[in-house]
Structure formats: C-alpha cells, structure tokens
Design brief:
132 residues, single chain, mainly alpha
Length: 132
Amino acid sequence: PNGYVTREEMDRILALFNGIGSAEEIPESMMDAVVGVSGSSPAYVCMLVEAMADAAVMGGMPRDQAYRFAEQAVLGSAKMLLETGMHPGVMKDMVCSPRGTTIEAVSALEAGGFRGTVMEAVDACIRKSEAL
C-alpha cells in the first residue's frame, strides 16, 4: 500500500483476496520478484505438465489421460507442500529410493540443467518486469 491506503482498507483488501485464494502483503520492492515466481508461473507449470504428458505419450499412454495424470501430480505435490509446510527438498528426497526410478529421473533433470534453467527463466522474468 501507499500513503493513500489506510491499514483498515488494506486489511479489507487482503480479506477479500484471501476469500478466493491466498494473498500476502509485500513491500513494493518485491513486486518484480512476485511477477517472476508467481505471476508468470502458470506458463512454467503448463510447460512442465505438457512435457510430462508428452513423455507419457511416448511411453504409450493416451494423451488425454497423460495430461490428467500430469496435472494431478502437480496439484497433489503442491497441495502436500502447502498443507504440510514440508520443504520441497525433503519431499523430493522422500520419493527418491536408493537405485530407484525417481532418483534416475532427478539425475536426468540435473544433467539437463533443470534447476538452473528454471532459475534463469524466473530471473529473466524479474529483469523484464524491472525494465517495464
């Protein structure tokens, strides 16, 4: 909020937004980071779902079913993180069995620069937002 918004007005605005989702008050200096990590994230998540579904199709799954499975996987993972407060790395480690299928997939993601690429994408978004 700026000087024209009272604390009472801000509390009402937050209550309104929290009634339909989740809202937090942040300083204006963090707005560009919010654009990068939240505002533009539907595109990132959709690309992940699309890639996961494409791979499932390559594995023989019908496309409509592949999208449902990928979408539910993303939804379930996000919901578990939100509801438990678990650190994402802890959840990742919980599903990575020694010599298992998931750790093989994680290794392939790391070899392809997955984390670095995601970080670079969010950073590019933040820089573009700052430039606007």
